[in-house]
């Protein structure tokens, strides 16, 4: 395509409010434009990449037998009332009223609509399993939209839903989807980890998040330096390592003020309230308590941190449950400062002195901790969540009365899985991983064009004619070519080419009359002079080496 | 694809509220499902067809150098205030408020957003012309959504916008788009007419509507029985045919009551108010006055019918303009009943007795009238509007201050064209043209599957094995195949196959062991027994004959 006819509004200056490389470079390269906070237009170059991501997603979804459909964004409030989420979802759910005063949600997710769609039809075990997906614009009224496409209010998502008559069937679809997601992100060229995540549900249903590694990522991933193990920081299990020599047990001492005995291990107490009870949790002060683990151990869906004005956790009131992190099992000399008493207890032997009901894994993992799979040590990385697979179970089918008849003719709720990929977010994640200070360096599977053909001076007939000849030749060879035929200064053209980031650059300049051009990979930048006879082979070689 | 694994919820019964064939059959065939009034889910079969239509649109848009992008559906109210349409658009424009209280429109059309997007970049005549399009979900809160996808509230539309520095450049893009639209609808197999339409604008800018011919259509098209001429009923020009013998002029007579003289031609007067003046228009009583023509002749954007309590149009008050339809030029003996006077004027010779300022074409064309292009006679047909091309001019660029610098460095407003195709509506129009009482008969360019392979009894090993062999064979030959491998009664399978409407049906039944199957075209229905050796050639022949 001739660049003179394309809409690629590049920007010389860095936009002031762009907070991440992807946001900055997608704007500067003319890939996207902001319309409102968290609301963007995808310009021709950016939308070309989105469509390439969508093709990859469709191919991998088709491969596992998932069927594409398209649900509406306008979702009647009645459906959200059935699951109770109309009230629970909060201000993130965009809502509107039609001319007759009826309320609608703008789809933030599709569980209600898809469940209402299948409940009349998937009425027999014979019709199960069933896998459906869509690629659709979704809406979430984020409080603080940021990082361009990373946290937007209108965004493109692939969401899939599967329906089953057994846990085994769900498990099979779950892992098929998991592997399809791995293939999708690999084909997009992403460095990512599939990590164990918290389902937020009582009992802990399976869920994995797909995290693209990037400094800008808001999530922290704990991964092994020697194996495939990876988990969300909050989910990474801490091994209950047995330390045989935990030192000598000494008599308990109580001292006024803060006075931790030398050699003693400082411990802290955290108080929580659940719907039913009060809980205090002891953790080494050098460790960080993990609320998600506390919640899961208690088997509750809600815990609240409290700051009791009175109460000594060494002698708690009746009914207060006491838990401790596994780490305390291996200490004989602990030290605890009791704030209400303004006194320090020294030489606490937890087994002897603390009324602990259970020792559990209740802290966050730390860098250097042994990996939970026993292989290597834990490291941390920042991640951008680009996908998630989730065993929903019967939460929605029960609420919405979506049942099937089993082989015995008994009505049972459909067992469901749900699966998502943030398509526009994936684009951002790719940008975070594929750029340098001058612009994008697209992986070849997604580049908007493979070859950027740059005519230094299109008014020069030799340059123009040779460029035209190469343009036809590359096109015939099946390459997608962007031809910069614009009457702009060479500096502007080269800067734009760096911003746009096609893998291969072919520059037609002063030696055009001699059939000599310059060839460069966007990544390496080094330009070599080359006769056009050698060009085809050299381009193949450059592309072989490219990501 | 195996039908047992697909989500195709066909319906035996005709849905009570389905008002048109397309609505009824899209529901019954499991192509779409209603979620709310005018809001639909596209199920896998229906969405496959939508995607095929979209591929055709993209190919034809690419061919004329239009670039695809994607604008957001959430459009800030500020943009609509710039053009004044926030107030003008009325309740059809869906509106919502975000968590910070800011108002947004849900895009009913994209002029505001696209103009705001290009106004910063298309700042020089050197960057023009430019052509941009998108395929996007649009929202209009129709008062009475009906006919399924024909008049929906959430629907899929292709909208394109072109930008120019001259009327000639706009004209060129307009006709390129016009011909691209013709190719798109031809490739979809539609019987359609491109008709002259009313632009609704002062001065009458060019616009054509693309009307698919269908009984259910809400628009009436006037077309020639002998040429390509076609226009919206309201736009079809009436030839000012010269009738030489218009009879003898007699003295004017006034009679009390209704007393039309024998041989006289009854004429009627219609009163209108514009923003500035009062107008009375004479038309033969046997003709129908055409308000659009009156408006265009007056060069105003608003006229209102009034019913004056007093006033005799033969002697109107000062300042009242009097127009007459061309038809009155050719009468010498007209008759007019004056309601305020309760009297009849007979033997009016319009040229002598009526204070007519101008004779113009002010009536609706009728069936049997000569075609305005001089070729043949006019016939009427009902049409569904599936597309429109429109010369916008500078309406939006002036309102939104979108200017470019011309060769002399002078700022001028961008000249714009806009172009639309109703994608989901096109699907409905195709249904209206391609069905019989039993279901859909898809044109082969859009059929969700080309071959429907039906195994009468999949529990029979001969039948199942032969079906599987044919399934692999057809797939290898590049056909898209739907294999009905379900354990259902044959009657259910055949009825579903008619509803789904694939062009070719291959039925594997009792003679499977002898390698004999039945072959039928969905359209002709006649089944012939055929050996599987002859099948490949026969299928090619059947498809050659299909639409």
Task: Give me a quick take on this structure.
Chain A is built from 13 helices and 31 strands. Chain A has 547 residues and is of the alpha+beta class. Chain A has three domains: 34-201 and 386-431, Bira Bifunctional Protein, Domain 2 (BirA Bifunctional Protein, domain 2), CATH 3.30.930; 253-360, YbaK protein (Alpha-Beta Complex), CATH 3.90.960; 442-545, Anticodon-binding domain (Rossmann fold, 3-Layer(aba) Sandwich).
Provide an overview of this structure.
2 copies of one chain form a homodimer. The first copy, chain A, has 13 helices and 31 strands. In chain A, strands 3, 7, 8, 9, 10, 11, 12, 21 and 24 form a 9-stranded mixed sheet that branches. In chain A, strands 13, 14, 15, 16, 17, 18, 19 and 20 form an 8-stranded mixed sheet that branches. In chain A, α11 links the parallel β27 (451-455) and β28. The two termini of chain A are 23 Å apart. The relative contact order of chain A is 0.14. The longest helix of chain A has 21 residues, at 167-187. By secondary structure, chain A is α+β, with helices and mostly antiparallel strands. The mean pLDDT of chain A is 93. The first copy, chain A, is globular, with a radius of gyration of 29 Å. Chain A has 3 domains: 34-201 and 386-431, Bira Bifunctional Protein, Domain 2 (BirA Bifunctional Protein, domain 2); 253-360, Alpha-Beta Complex (YbaK protein), CATH 3.90.960.10; 442-545, Anticodon-binding domain (Rossmann fold). At the A-B interface, β1, β2, α2, β3 and β4 of A face β1, β2, α2, β3 and β4 of B. Chains A, B: It comes from Sporolactobacillus mangiferae. Chains A, B: Its EC number is 6.1.1.15. Chains A, B: This is Proline--tRNA ligase.
